[in-house]
Amino acid sequence: MTRLILSRLLSALPNLAGVVLLTFILTRMLPGDPAAYFAGPAATPQSIEQVRQQLGLARSAPEQFYGYVLQLARGDLGKSLTSGQTVLDDLVARLPASLELTVAALLLASLAGISLGVGAAVRPGGVVDHLCGLLSALGQAMPTFFLGLLLVFVFYYLLGWAPAPLGRLDIGYPSPDDITGFWLIDTLLEGDFDGFVGVFKQLVLPVVTLGLFGIGPIARMTRAGMIEVLGSDFVRTARAAGLPPWKVLWVYAFRSVLVPVLNTIGMVFSFMLGANVLVEKVFGWPGIGAYAIDSVLASDFAPIQGFVLLMAALYVLINLLIDIVAVLLDPRVRFDG
């Protein structure tokens, strides 16, 4: 196991280095002049040039990249010119909001996707199978930001069932103390049940938006694997031996497809982290995705680079975690290739 973890971490280093270089190049290709933006609309050419010198943008690109790499070696992601805080502090403060949203959406997608996939495999061509196909097509064909806007229009504007899409908690509730950063858990730890209900209501629409995006791949992978396993000899033998149908289905058959389903869930989680960027903006969610978009609009380079590097590191860690769990579930799994 230690060898697997070390090999995965070492093999990720060239990828992270490529992400650092590519992100630096792409941020310098963004339209607009950061010096003119931060100097203000009434700035003179002299004041813009002065700001450019202060930001270090007057240096050549190789010199800027060399300085950026030295910063990273010291664990310094730079300073956000928009917030005035260090990028690391901004990301640490906003990451729990994004993770709470993504984890809740992944739980919804996993429970719904696995249930639909198993139900579709048990009765191919039935009602559940058609529902599985419909939700898969809907989640994959409709852009997440459009689905989010549609849900806000229907459930907030027309029906009035959902709270205003203005962040993690309605203005009528006090914010909980940051104990874990996950406000569903923090409100329960404080014994604030009304606050828990308020946080839950704010989560529903963005979680459904992200969850629908992830249901399709999980349901399709579960369905394909279960159809193959349910027709295998060991399942027919288990049925002939008189084992309960639920035990044959969930203990023997589903266990055989658990590893590929788990790999799909890991892939969906990575995609959800990227899809969060637009969903957070639609619902006013104070996560790292909205932070990245605001930084792009302001041509604030350091937060963009820090956000992309954080996403790459999370992607590596998630895949490492999935590999470890896969080995624990099935010791026959090898990653030598």
Helix/strand order? HHHHHHHHHHHHHH
Biggest pleated sheet = none
As a percent range, the share of strand residues is under 5%
Low-confidence stretches: none
- C-alpha termini separation: 16 Å
Shape summary: globular
The residue-averaged pLDDT reads: 86
- By DSSP (H or I, 4+ residues per run), the number of helices equals 14
Structural class: mainly alpha
Q: How much helix, percentage-wise, in residues?
A: over 70%
Q: Rg to the nearest angstrom?
A: 24 Å
Number of DSSP E strands? 0
Keywords: Cell membrane, Membrane, Transmembrane, Transmembrane helix, Transport
Membrane topology: Multi-pass membrane protein
Protein name: Peptide/nickel transport system permease protein
Organism: Labrys monachus
Describe this structure in words.
- The chain contains 14 helices and no strands.
- Helix 1 packs antiparallel against helix 14, helix 7 packs across helix 9 and helix 9 crosses helix 11.
- The longest helix has about 40 residues.
- It is globular, with a radius of gyration of 24 Å.
Question: TL;DR?
Answer:
The chain is mainly alpha-helical and 337 residues long. The protein has helices spanning 2-28, 34-39, 45-55, 61-73, 87-122, 127-141, 144-158, 183-189, 193-230, 233-240, 245-256, 258-282, 288-297, 301-329.
